Amino acid sequence: MTIGNIDLGSKPVMLAPMEDVTDASFRLICKEQGADMTYTEFVSADALIRNIAATTRKLHIEPGERPTAIQIYGREVEPMVEAAKIVAQAGPDILDINFGCPVKKVAGKGAGAGMLRDIPKMLEITRAVVNAVDIPVTVKTRLGWDCNSKIIVDLAEQLQDCGIKAITVHGRTRSQMYTGEADWAEIARVKNNPRLHIPVIGNGDITTPAKLVDAFNIYGVDGVMVGRASIGAPWIFREMTSLLRDGRVAEISVAEKFALLRRQIRESVERIDEYRGILHIRRHLAASPLFKSIPNFRPVRIAMLKADTLDELEKILCTIENDIIPSIDNSDK
Q1: Which of 169, 193, 100, 91 has its CA nearest to residue 133?
Q2: pLDDT reading at 333 higher than 60
Q3: Mean pLDDT of the chain
Q4: pLDDT by residue (tens digit) across 187-243?
Q5: Annotated catalytic, 30?
Q6: What are the distances in angstroms from CA 235 to CA 34, 126, 292, 329?
Q7: Domain span holding position 73
Q8: Closest listed residue to residue 177, CA positions, set 125, 127, 142, 206
Q9: pLDDT, average across residues 67-84
Q10: Mean pLDDT over residues 169-179, rounded?
Q11: What is the pLDDT of residue 331?
């Protein structure tokens, strides 16, 4: 699969853009674990052209994580064009336009998935951004605004005509948010449209290696994007790509998984500071499947998510790794 001049190989698996999740450190770890491509947190066009420091920091890309796309969102043509030019100067491999974010503070203001209610404006923005930069432009969007307006098959054609080099389809409408099940049959309809010639990347509910393989083998997409399942579990890319390419799921020890979480914590603190770095990483700790099967874990979980120093957090993790998890493993023998 290629996007413009970027060759991603056969059946690439990608880390989805997620706000407050896909910082540079996490992207690099996921790349090392097998992700074929990474996406930044989404970047507000308005904030970028106002040179807001927290926004401009999102443009930083580590050499080892490439190929990487920077994703932008906005609701007006001129700010999106100006932001696209700034992004291009930061040197990403690809520029992605977010027409899929469903949250109220974005979609409710007409940006993200809000653009699904104003297709002429969406196409105008897309065409203008494509013409403004020399790097490949892609789009990430949803099936439509609601169940009565699943317009993605025709919309994908229209976006292709604007010059985009690939499209990612999340298999839900905006009204669904993240509820219900992603409709991969509808994603397959986009892929099977004989008039569509750009790569189609599927997204939504890819939570296991088996589901990843099905996405390729049953629905025929060119690439798959993995989002929420990677939070607190960057090793999922190694598990997924090993089944896809070797026919078996790689065995990853508990010690390796703890080491990856500890690295995330350390690099988050180094990137920001101790207090805010730990706040940032709590989302990963709360979501990590490492802790899902531990009985009567609630008090320890609360303590872990309340810890506000590295020393305190490390003591709790050591207790979990050395005392709690081994006792569970032994009880199963």
Answers
A1: 91
A2: no
A3: 95
A4: 999 999 999 999 999 999 999 999 999 999 999 999 999 999 999 999 999 999 999
A5: no
A6: 8, 34, 16, 20
A7: 2-245
A8: 142
A9: 98
A10: 96
A11: 46
Catalytic one among 101, 147, 162, 318? 101
Other CB atoms within 10 Å distance of the CB of residue 20 = 10
Distance, CA of 161 to CA of 168 (rounded, Å): 16
The token duo for 208 is 């296991």
The total number of structural domains in the chain stands at: 2
Are 63 and 143 in the same domain?
yes
Looking at the fold, whether 50 and 143 belong to one and the same domain comes out as: yes
Amino acid identity for residue 55 in this structure: T
Percent of the chain with pLDDT over 70: 98
Same domain, 193 and 261: no
User: Is the domain of 151 the same as that of 225?
Assistant: yes
Find the length of the chain: 333
Phi and psi, residue 150, nearest 5°: -80, 95
Whether residues 217 and 316 share a domain: the answer is: no
Residue 327, pLDDT score: 57
Q: Which helix (H) or strand (E) segment is 188 a member of?
A: helix 184-191
Rounded Cα distance, 113 and 119, in Å: 11
Could you tell me if 222 and 319 lie in one domain?
A: no
Same domain, 197 and 49: yes
